[in-house]
Amino acid sequence: MTYVKAEIASQPECWRRAAKLADAPGLPERGERVAAVGCGTSWFMAKAYAALREQKGHGETDAFQASEFPRRRRYDRVVAITRSGTTTEVLDVLNDLAGGTPTTVITAEEAQPAARIADRSIVLDFADEQSVVQTRFATSTLALLRAHLGEDIESVAADAEVAVRLPLPVHPALAEQITFLGRGWTVGLAEEAALKCREAAAFWAEAYPAMDYRHGPISIAAPRRAVWAFGEVPTDLPDEVEATGALFVHSRHHGGYAALGSWCGGRAPLDPMADLVVAQRVAVLLATSQGLDPDHPRNLTRSVVL
Ligand code: F1P
In testing the pocket of ligand 1, which one of 4, 7, 37, 42 has its CB within 8 Å of the most ligand atoms? Predict the structure, then answer.
């Protein structure tokens, strides 16, 4: 068994543990103007959090790839997400803000520089991973942040218990490409799902805000390709995708999670974070079906140290 398979399967428990840290000191107060930063997977979690925090009325929240953080803007707090605690671009932001803007880091590694440089650190060491490819650290971070925004993580974790067992909606032998879509906070999840497919399986995957999909990317849709939407689906989009011959995948759509009614007794669609778990499992299958080791992706290391 690969490490990543076990790490994916442990997410429901990790999310429950992460949610218990919802009152940790250093998480943004309601009304604060906040920026969230990270690189790669951690950036996509920052994007999801930023959109959700603002949508829920907790205050203006931006998200930046750490290298693109606008140094001249004023924030009440900067939240940095970094599993390793060693990513250079993240450390640069934290160092530049030291003594000025309050900073909080969410990390798996208490002993690494990010936790030392930031004013506050929240350590999710129980969600650390042996696989280079991130799964449970990222989603546990988002579970913690969602819990801090007042969301009920128990029901999300219950959906993840379903997601780790579901039959997969996309089979590697039948798909040569996947485009992931999202709206609002699920745009970050879509980007993360596509990154998982690229990282773990060197598989052609793209991601867009769902409403932008018709503005060009739909040209990619064709038979043997899939379009997988997280969360809210724009009206008519499933029909437009299926007219191209592509498979439309959604946790509630008949053409995607085909037997939804039977596999989860007609319940509501999965929480989008649980839907991401299904996409992580697809990424691993895309890798192993080509004989690739999803724990050690080509050209990747645990963190990028420049
Ligand atoms: C960030 C990151 C990962 C990516 C790869 C390189 O790491 O970009 O998202 O999958 O492992 O590093 P971190 O800052 O969260 O440790």
Answer: 42
Counting every residue, how long is the chain? 306
The parts of the chain modelled with pLDDT lower than 70 are 253-268
Instruction: Tell me the CATH class for 166-288.
Output: alpha beta
CA of 291 to the centre of ligand 1 (A): 23
CA–centroid distance, residue 152 to ligand 1 (Å): 27
d(CA 83, CA 80): 10
Confidence at residue 265, expressed as pLDDT on a 0 to 100 scale? 44
Ligand 1 binding pocket, CB closer than 6 Å: 39-42, 82-84, 87, 90, 132, 134, 199, 300, 302-304
> Residue 68 corresponds to which tokens in the numbers above?
């693109």
- Judge whether 273 and 182 are in contact, CB under 8 Å: no
Ligand 1, atom nearest to 114 Cα? 14
Nearest to 32 by CA among 102, 105, 107, 118: 102
Report the SS3 class of residue 202: coil
Expressed in angstroms and rounded, the spacing between residue 139 Cα and the centre of ligand 1 is: 13
Q: Which two tokens stand for residue 107?
A: 């990390």
7 and 131 in contact (C-beta within 8 Å)?
yes
- Whole-number pLDDT of residue 269: 85
What pLDDT is attached to residue 92?
98
State pTM to two decimals.
0.95
| DSSP class of 232 | S
3-153 homologous superfamily: Glucose-6-phosphate isomerase like protein; domain 1 (3.40.50.10490)
DSSP letter, residue 220: G
